[in-house]
């Protein structure tokens, strides 16, 4: 597994989706993951330091884990099946290791709130979803402009993958 961090989020116009860009820590790869607008907003609000007057869903989940004594250790984007990303939240409770199935978007929203690292499993990277990270801001801007014109399935088609959308589905 390799550690990644959130490089940026981009709202894709007229799609109701965000693309979250995960950047490899101490590496040259970037993984774009299409996520829903609500989860994207939850991640963005936290990254911007916005404080809502009442707890949002992911804030409530963090509050519950703390009250119940569950310690979130990290989140892992652990698989890509039929162009759908999968993740787990790894935690401990009373000395017992927990691995909780979750969507990557919810996992990332919790990770930014809990201040825990995000990892991407090597098998996800081997499936060809990682792209070399742009070196300059101009290259990153150009890449984002290209993504605005694509649907998730177009991204995978251009990379030689067949199938449906490269994002999250309700599984």
Notable characteristics:
single chain, 171 residues, Bifunctional nuclease domain, 36% helix, globular
Describe the structure.
A hairpin with a 4-residue loop joins strand 2 (17-24) and strand 3 (29-36). An 8-stranded mixed β-sheet has the order 6-5-4-7-1-2-3-8. It is built from 6 helices and 8 strands. Helices cover 36% and strands 36% of the residues. The protein has helices at residues 37-47, 57-68, 104-114, 122-129, 137-148, 152-158; strands at 2-12, 17-24, 29-36, 70-81, 84-93, 96-102, 118-120, 131-132. Residues 161-165 have low confidence and may be disordered. By secondary structure, the protein is an alpha+beta fold. The chain has one domain (2-158): Bifunctional nuclease domain (Roll), CATH 3.10.690. The protein starts with a strand and ends in a 13-residue tail after the last helix. The relative contact order is 0.21. Helix 1 runs parallel beside helix 3 and helix 2 crosses helix 3 (104-114).
Give the helix level as a range of percent.
Answer: 25-40%
Taking all residues together, what is the mean pLDDT?
Answer: 87
Structural class: alpha+beta
Q: What is the 3D shape?
A: globular
In short, what is this structure?
This protein is an alpha+beta fold.
Write the layout of secondary structure elements.
Layout: E1 2-12, E2 17-24, E3 29-36, H1 37-47, H2 57-68, E4 70-81, E5 84-93, E6 96-102, H3 104-114, E7 118-120, H4 122-129, E8 131-132, H5 137-148, H6 152-158
Parallel strand pairs: 4-7
Antiparallel strand pairs: 1-2, 1-7, 2-3, 3-8, 4-5, 5-6
């Amino acid at each position: 597994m390799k550690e990644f961090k959130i490089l940026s989020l981009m709202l894709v116009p007229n799609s109701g989706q965000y693309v979250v860009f995960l950047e490899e820590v101490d590496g040259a790869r970037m993984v774009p993951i299409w996520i829903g607008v609500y989860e994207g907003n939850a991640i963005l609000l936290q990254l911007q330091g916005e404080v809502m007057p009442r707890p949002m869903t992911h804030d409530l989940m963090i509050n519950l884990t703390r009250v119940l004594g569950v310690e979130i250790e990290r989140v892992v984007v652990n698989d890509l099946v039929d162009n759908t990303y999968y993740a787990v939240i790894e935690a401990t409770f009373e000395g017992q290791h927990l691995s909780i199935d979750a969507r990557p978007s919810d996992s990332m929203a919790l990770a930014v709130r809990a201040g825990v690292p995000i990892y991407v499993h090597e098998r996800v990277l081997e499936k060809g979803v990682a792209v070399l990270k742009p070196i300059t801001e101009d290259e990153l801007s150009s890449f984002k402009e290209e993504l605005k014109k694509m649907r998730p399935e177009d991204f995978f088609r251009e990379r030689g993958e067949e199938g449906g959308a490269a994002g999250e589905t309700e599984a």
